[in-house]
Amino acid sequence: MSESLPEPLPESQAEPLLQITELTTILGNPAQPLRVVDGLTLTLDRGETVALLGESGCGKSLTALSLMRLLPDSGRIVAGSVRLAGTELLTLTEAEMRQVRGGQLAMIFQEPQTALNPVLTVGTQIGEAVRLYQGAASEAVRSRVLTLLRAVGIPAPVQRLTEYPHQLSGGMKQRIMMAMALAGDPQVLIADEPTTALDVTIQAQVLRLLKSVQAKSGLAMLLITHDLGVVAETAERLAVMYAGQLVETAPVAAFFAQPLHPYSRSLLASLPDANQRSGRLLVIPGRVPPLDAQLSGCRFVERCPNAEPRCHQEHPAWRTLADGRGVRCHRVDELSIHPAPPLVVASANTTVDSAPTPAPAAITPETPTPAAEVQVPLLTMRGLQVHFPIYRGLLRRIVGHVRAVDGISLDLYAGRTLALVGESGCGKTTVGKGLLQLVPPTGGSVRYRGQELIGLSHRRLRAFRKDLQIVFQDPFASMNPRMVVGDIIGEGLHALRILPKRADRLRRVAELLELVGLDPEAINRYPHEFSGGQRQRLCIARALALDPRIIVCDEPTSALDVSVQAQILNLLKDLQEQLGLAYLFITHDLSVVPYLAHKVAVMYLGRVVEHGPVDEVLDDPRHPYTKALLSAVPVIDPTRRRQVIQLDGDMPSPRQPPSGCHFHPRCPEVMAICRHHYPVETRLGTKRRVCCHAVAAGLTD
Amino acid sequence: MIAYIVRRLLYAIPILIGVNLLTFVLFFVVNSPDDMARMHLGEKRVTTEAIQNWKAERGYDRPLLYNAEADGIARVTETIVFQKSIKLFVFHFGSSDAGRDIGYDISQRMWPSLAIALPVLVIGLVFNISYALLIVFFRATYLDWGSVVLLVAMMSISGLFYIIGGQFLIGKLWHLVPISGYDPGLNAWKFLILPVMIGVISGIGAGTRWYRTLFLEEISRDYVRTARAKGLSEQVVLFRHVLRNALIPILTGVVVVLPLLFMGSLITESFFGIPGLGSYTIDAISNQDFAIVRAMVFLGAVLYIIGLILTDISYTLVDPRVRLG
């Protein structure tokens, strides 16, 4: 293996399309700058897709903005060079750079919701990009806009021209973004997390579209993402970024076969995967070092399972290996000989920057062993309905209902997890809120230990609040920023007068903090002092404070990075085993389901379409929607990849669900009967239920 | 949208009844007509006869709510509540305590008020928006920081200072325009120019600073970054993207005060001796002429409600996301 620096690709003969060399960007005040991009060297060839992979805060997006020279006001490029087709971009004047933006180098942003101007029509927004590169003749502009809209697969483009962004779905908006980016026929497209805000089936549509556009125009793409599955399915090469630096570059296939850098290995190992249905997820301890510090050693050293003294003192140089791969690690030679390094299997309580805590014997479960109780459901939900009225007209008459939840039947058992899976807008969060009576259900029944909860007065419900708790999706927004941790977690104990004295409450809160793997010292701190993963631990501690029997987990990990997600999932699993909790785990992410859940229910437009044990449903999906959903999840292992079942269009509005089976307009297996009658439940064996005419008729397979 | 406007107009009815009721209680129950008469005739040595005369001249001698002495419908109409309060609903303001027709006075005096308030609003708006855009274009430079200091200083100075200072400097020292007064017809301009100028200047500090904040907030949004990524120039980004969005709160803030422009400004008009509705109200208050005050309070409430409805309608015109239903 040769050693050379800093060129990662020494054997490149002709100049690549985009050549980034030693790019360094700082952010913040000059006295103590954050080196958010530190000596990044990367190339991109025509027609190639390179993925830039990393967790949040590692500098991926700022790299993209540096290339576009669109850094925020406090950011500055201090060193390096960016050459696009032989032109140095960093020395261009602003006016010249504007010609490059959109014309040669275009960008798609992460959040289509906010990235489009809300008060201008779609036609205007695409049109102004077209006009920059193609005179001002309005007829020509209009026809070019229409061509672009067709190219990104937008139905009825003429009608869309006069529509505003808020009238379009998320997937449609991302297509508009793409049409805008393609307006100037760019050579390089930077896609910054283009599908992160989208559902899996829509993500599959958008990724396929990106690939087909690329195939037609031969454009080079820099795909910024944190999702290893997306990388595996779309990119040819990838570059892993950590704390502002590249730590590894490799062809995608070689990378997934054997990642070299310890960070890459840990990242890959922390993914919940079908292979890991039992056992624990591997977690990366610690967190990304602050970028304003003078770092002498390797930036990953504090979290590295293979660190040796040299790693603390010397900053590892970039090394190019014989096969063209590059890596930044002192020990790469030794480690690549032993491909399976001993990774840390952290238990839930030795975690992130908190002191190691004693075994959580603080809370003794008072439940009988789960096995005894498995037969009797803790909570039964039958035909739950939550309809929201739509008012219209002078007298505010009810003219219809949004059928957010339309007849859901589920059982929750002690010590078991039921995953409720569905895309955004299917009503899964409303099911959780309806269960907890946080929104009043309009029909059906929710019985907890035989007691009907629907229709109970506020006062009588209080007795049950203790047993039914919730962990919310966004740990940043779900805690009062002006309260200290001790009061946030203890609030329920106070409100229900379980521990009226503050001193008692704080003692209990300290126990809870230990239970979720946080330092009890945290009791007097404010939520903003914690990282995302730690905050979600606080939210879990808050839910546990009342010693509940059932916890509704509403997308508890969707706002977190992969390595942090692993910590939280492990914690939830441990707590379930210790305390015999029943979870309703609401998620859109199918990949976490097999790790945590025992049963799964798939929801579409307010109703459950398929329900059964996790293994059976995921291995042998029967409902066409479940099949499509599963096939759309990006898979790393090429041998396990399935043909993506493309669903056209978006989920219809729950205001006017389609007649017959709600899924029929998008269903690849649609039959005549599906248009008129909603299918009755078909039982498969003792444990599975599917609502599908095709399954009922025994037509599938 | 029609249904929404009709519903809002219906909501206005109970509000106006409430306003009317409150003013009625305030002016006729708490402060009885006897007290009013005594106040006007002088506190001491007032005969009961004089009070009765004063009340009879102005129609305050009727019973408050129910006239048992009258016949038929007059039992209800020949009361103070009907004559003085309910008639306000049809804009029948009656006559002032000094004996003048209030409706006629208002129709005469609203034009000078408007002649000051409207130019102040329009010129102020154009100036403040332009200045704020300039600051934002040169954001994070000395022009930006210097301007913010200047604006905060201008905001911190009392409006009275601008009036007195302006009158002293331009009127008294330089003799450019008269210090105060008014002349109906086309000659009015030389009396108007100073109050308009001072009105604009005293609004620059708060106005420009607020608009600057709005623009800066918009300019950091994602869609602005998208617009720049297309390769649009900074001017196009500012005028087509930022201005369009930032104008939404500005415009609706302006629409709500539009109807109230007729009411004039209490302070400016009395300092410059402009015979508008502002000075009309101030004079009425100092003369204890409650008939005028009551009429102006009611008129203010009506105009404010109209302003709020217009604001809602203007939202639908400038923001495609808003639909009234």
Give a structural overview.
The complex is a heterodimer of chains A (701) and B (325). Chain A is built from 24 helices and 24 strands. Chain A is an alpha/beta fold and 701 residues long. The longest helix of chain A has 18 residues, at 200-217. Chain A is globular, with a radius of gyration of 27 Å. Chain B is built from 14 helices and no strands. Chain B is 72% helix and 0% strand. Chain B starts with a helix and ends in a 7-residue tail after the last helix. In chain B, helix 9 packs across helix 11 (234-257) and helix 11 (234-257) runs antiparallel to helix 14 (290-318). Classes of the chains: A alpha/beta (701), B mainly alpha (325). Chain B: It is a multi-pass membrane protein. Chain B: Keywords: Cell membrane, Membrane, Transmembrane, Transmembrane helix, Transport. Chain B: It comes from Allochromatium warmingii (Chromatium warmingii). Chain B: The chain crosses the membrane at residues 9-30, 114-136, 148-171, 191-211, 247-272, 292-318.
Give a quick set of tags describing it.
heterodimer, A: 701 residues, alpha/beta, Rossmann fold, eight-stranded mixed β-sheet, 24 helices, globular, disordered N terminus, B: 325 residues, mainly alpha, MetI-like fold, 2 domains, 14 helices, MetI-like_sf (chain B), membrane (chain B), transmembrane (chain B)
The beta-strand count of chain B equals: 0
DSSP strand count of chain A: 24
> Mind summarizing the main beta sheet of chain B?
none
Measured between the Cα atoms of the first and last residue of chain B, the distance is 6 Å
